[in-house]
Amino acid sequence: MVSVIEFTLYVWFRRADADGAENWMVDNVIPLEREILGATETSRDDHGDGALQLKVWAVMDGIVYLSSEIFRDPELPCWFLSFCLQTRKLEKLFHKTFDNGVFPYVMAWPPSLVGNNASP
């Protein structure tokens, strides 16, 4: 599991503590401020105090997909980024105005909702 606070990415794993009880424990703390501001060619001063934050969208195959969010003006575009936990490489994906929530949809194959027009 991953979480983000300001520009720091926290990687969590479920492990047994000293008493043997399983708890979520921080495994790794990865500061991303320099990489994010460098990749997006901005500075903290460009956004105002606390105006720019990161949001984690998904973690798949060791890659964290996240976006920048600017809370001062929802009309401003934000960056969508990916970060590989293994190589520690940050990549810009695209820069876009965030209109609304995006939810991926995976359709089963063969498509069961497609009408079959064949006569018996």
Characterize the structure shown:
It contains two helices and seven strands; from the N terminus they run βββααββββ. It is mainly beta and 120 residues long. The chain has one domain. The chain has a four-stranded antiparallel β-sheet with strand order 4-5-6-7, with helices on one face. It has a three-stranded antiparallel β-sheet with strand order 1-2-3, with no helix packed on it. The mean pLDDT is 77.
| Biggest sheet details | 4 strands, antiparallel
Class by alpha and beta content: mainly beta
Indicate the proportion of strand residues: over 45%
Q: What is the global morphology?
A: flat
How far apart are the termini?
A: 51 Å
Please give the order of strands in the largest beta sheet: 4-5-6-7
List the uncertain runs: none
Q: Which range best describes the helical content: under 10%, 10-25%, 25-40%, 40-55%, 55-70% or over 70%?
A: under 10%
Mean pLDDT: 77
